[in-house]
């Protein structure tokens, strides 16, 4: 058991190393010479060469990679060409905004996924309709969903704000997470305002993942609800509700939890688009802003951070499942 | 994501007889197939169907949808209908190319791993697993950002992150086939190794690969549209659905049709592709 956990965590480290190597290689593929970009077009060739040496670009690739890895581990992602600030400073401001959005979106995706899975697997007339609805939900591009949300709930009904993160620009707290900070300082007006801003972008990101989780849960629920132990439970006279909750969901949750972890990859890509549309000041928006200026220091840093988050969370999901489900251990 | 669904195929097909009876036999699927074929035809005959050149302004800017311009015109005066027709073409070609390269790269790696076995197998599959453990859509963004935007670059980037699913499926099928009696018989009768690989093992993995491929079309259309939305596709005036929608974002509240129409066509295309993929998966499942 312990050996398996250690092995899974070891695999995680290998994947993280590969991730940094991939971003490092991509950085090398950059058509623009970073030294030239940093010094500007009018700098002399000599000065550029000098700067290249200073940055260590004349050393062998492997040495450069090790230096790069050291910098990344210490949180140094070099300077952004666009903002002229260290990328790490830009990210420190943007990460809490994304973290808040992603956490709420993941929560919504899991709740929605479980609801869809149960409704789809239960025996009732409408379950064929649920299949169509689920496939439709999995086919809407995230930007169309965002437009629809803005047009209906913000423009037409006026229920929710369609852009930005807060109306209280001057409010700052210790964690940067508005929902947490506002509660710490007892500002319920700020809390409610932040929540209202969160709803549309979070639900937009969540829908696609909720559908994927729901589809997997539905098929695994289908199996567990037809298993002999479910029949026994029904024969004991347990109401269907209890059979689903206690015997079905528990045993069917494994694949759905794995799916939730895998969905994070798609969610992170969705975050880049959704933050752009809603002008949400997170790292996805930061990455999208960096694309037109070809600012790879920034793009690479966001890829590393979100990628590492994805890899670590999926490893933790696996470990938790090994602990929870004895069938996986063997 | 598609692979996980594939793994549950067997499980689902057990209940299929019952479900077949319950639901009206695939009316929705037949309708989806019809729409998909129609959209593919539109994409193929795009120059004949589009009333205007997608790269030459056809009328006054910001004209709402009407008789002259079915889907209206955009901020420059391009006819949105004509651009959508060509955009469908880019979406379908993109998805097709990525899937094909996924099948070729993944197929070769999976075939080698499954047929040779031993340390070659574990080395190749370990590598595949590492790539599978990375977030593919995010990595695709980084790859295009690094090598520079463009249609071919987008396809290249997505293909690079897409093959591991195929490698794994093919390898699984080949490993199972390798120990079947007919392969043993072929080996004993002295058939060359190459012939066994390509005539006896590879065709056996085809059904599973085809199911995965049809399930992938919808998802790929969405991912390619997303990359195009972020400005990573072909440069500005090119008719790509995602890019058209992104450039129309400023007009969402004043001229809704500019961002909405291209996005809606991405949704329609992905929806029918997903329905057809799902239908084919069910069909294959029930044949087993």
Notes on the protein architecture:
The complex is a heterodimer of chains A (330) and B (288). In chain A, α5 (87-121) runs antiparallel to α6 and α9 crosses α11. Chain A has 330 residues and is mostly helical. Chain A contains 14 helices and no strands. The radius of gyration of chain A is 24 Å and the shape is globular. Chain A has helices at residues 2-29, 34-39, 45-55, 61-73, 87-121, 127-137, 142-156, 178-184, 188-225, 228-235, 240-277, 283-290, 296-324, 326-329. The mean pLDDT of chain A is 85. By secondary structure, chain B is mostly helical. The two termini of chain B are 22 Å apart. Chain B has helices spanning 2-7, 9-14, 16-22, 27-44, 46-49, 80-116, 118-132, 136-147, 151-178, 181-188, 193-201, 206-229, 241-247, 257-287. Chain B has 14 helices and no strands. In chain B, α4 packs across α6 (80-116), α6 packs parallel to α9 and α12 (206-229) packs antiparallel against α14 (257-287). Helices cover 74% and strands 0% of the residues of chain B. The interface between A and B is large, with 67 and 60 residues.
Order of helices and strands of chain B: HHHHHHHHHHHHHH
The largest sheet of chain B is: none
Structural class of chain A: mainly alpha
Helix run count of chain B: 14
Query: What is the total tally of β strands of chain B?
Result: 0
Q: Give the CA-CA distance, first to last residue of chain A.
A: 9 Å
Could you give a quick summary of the protein structure above?
The complex is a heterodimer of chains A (330) and B (288). With 330 residues, chain A is mainly alpha-helical.
What's the topology here?
The complex is a heterodimer of chains A (330) and B (288).
Chain A: H1 2-29, H2 34-39, H3 45-55, H4 61-73, H5 87-121, H6 127-137, H7 142-156, H8 178-184, H9 188-225, H10 228-235, H11 240-277, H12 283-290, H13 296-324, H14 326-329
Helix pairs in contact in A: 1-13, 5-6, 5-9, 5-11, 6-9, 7-9, 7-11, 8-9, 9-11, 10-11, 11-12, 11-13, 12-13
Chain B: H1 2-7, H2 9-14, H3 16-22, H4 27-44, H5 46-49, H6 80-116, H7 118-132, H8 136-147, H9 151-178, H10 181-188, H11 193-201, H12 206-229, H13 241-247, H14 257-287
Helix pairs in contact in B: 4-6, 4-14, 6-7, 6-9, 6-12, 6-14, 7-9, 8-9, 9-12, 10-11, 12-13, 12-14, 13-14
């Amino acid at each position: 058991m312990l050996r398996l956990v250690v092995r899974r965590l070891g695999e995680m480290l290998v994947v993280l190393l590969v991730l940094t190597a991939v971003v490092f290689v991509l950085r090398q593929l950059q058509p623009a010479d970073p030294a030239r970009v940093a010094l500007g077009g009018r700098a002399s060739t000599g000065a550029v060469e000098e700067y290249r040496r200073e940055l260590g670009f004349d050393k062998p690739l492997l040495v450069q990679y090790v230096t790069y890895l050291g910098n990344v581990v210490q949180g140094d992602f070099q300077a952004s060409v666009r903002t002229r600030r260290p990328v790490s400073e830009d990210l420190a401001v943007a990460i809490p905004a994304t973290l808040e959005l992603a956490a709420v979106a993941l929560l919504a995706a899991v709740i929605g996924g479980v609801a869809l899975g149960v409704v789809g697997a239960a025996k009732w007339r409408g379950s064929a309709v649920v299949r169509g609805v689920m496939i439709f939900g999995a086919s809407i591009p995230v930007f169309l969903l965002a437009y629809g949300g803005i047009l209906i709930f913000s423009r037409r009904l006026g229920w929710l704000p369609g852009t930005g993160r807060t109306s209280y620009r001057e409010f700052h707290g210790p964690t940067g997470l508005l929902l947490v900070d506002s509660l710490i300082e007892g500002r319920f007006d700020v809390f409610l305002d932040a929540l209202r801003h969160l709803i549309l972008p979070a639900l937009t990101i969540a829908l696609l993942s909720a559908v994927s989780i729901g589809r997997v849960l539905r098929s695994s629920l289908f199996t567990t609800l037809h298993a002999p132990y479910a029949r026994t439970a029904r024969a004991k006279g347990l109401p269907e509700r209890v059979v689903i909750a206690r015997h079905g969901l528990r045993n069917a949750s494994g694949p759905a939890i794995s799916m939730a972890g895998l969905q994070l990859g798609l969610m992170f890509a969705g975050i880049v688009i959704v933050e752009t549309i809603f002008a949400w000041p997170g790292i996805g928006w930061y990455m999208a802003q960096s694309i037109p200026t070809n600012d790879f220091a920034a793009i690479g840093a966001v890829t590393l951070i979100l990628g590492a988050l994805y890899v670590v969370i999926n490893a933790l999901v696996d470990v938790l499942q090994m602990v929870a489900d004895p069938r996986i251990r063997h | 994501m598609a692979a996980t669904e594939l793994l549950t195929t067997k499980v689902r097909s057990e209940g299929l007889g019952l479900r077949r009876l319950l639901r009206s036999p695939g009316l929705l699927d037949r309708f989806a197939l019809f729409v998909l074929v129609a959209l593919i035809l539109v994409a193929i005959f795009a120059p004949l169907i589009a009333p205007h050149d997608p790269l030459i302004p056809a009328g006054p800017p910001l004209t709402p949808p009407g008789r002259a311009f079915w889907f209206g015109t955009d901020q420059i005066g391009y006819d949105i209908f004509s651009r959508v027709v060509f955009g469908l073409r880019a979406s379908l070609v993109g998805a097709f190319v990525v899937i094909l390269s996924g099948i070729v790269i993944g197929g070769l790696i999976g075939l080698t791993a499954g047929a040779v076995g031993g340390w070659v197998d574990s080395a190749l599959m370990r590598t595949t697993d590492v790539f599978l453990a990375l977030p593919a859509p995010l990595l695709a963004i980084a790859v295009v950002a690094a090598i520079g935007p463009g249609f071919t670059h987008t396809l290249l980037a997505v293909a690079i992150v897409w093959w591991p699913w195929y490698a794994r499926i093919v390898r699984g099928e080949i490993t199972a086939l390798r120990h079947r009696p007919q392969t043993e018989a072929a080996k004993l009768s002295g058939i060359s190794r190459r012939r066994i690989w390509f005539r006896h093992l590879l065709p056996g993995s085809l059904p599973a690969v085809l199911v995965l491929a049809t399930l992938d079309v919808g998802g790929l259309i969405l991912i390619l549209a997303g990359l195009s939305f972020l400005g990573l596709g072909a440069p500005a005036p090119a008719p790509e659905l995602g890019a058209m929608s992104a450039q129309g974002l400023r007009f969402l509240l004043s001229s809704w049709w500019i961002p909405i129409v291209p996005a809606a066509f991405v949704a329609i295309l992905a929806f029918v592709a997903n329905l057809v993929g799902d239908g084919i998966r069910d069909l294959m499942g029930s044949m087993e």
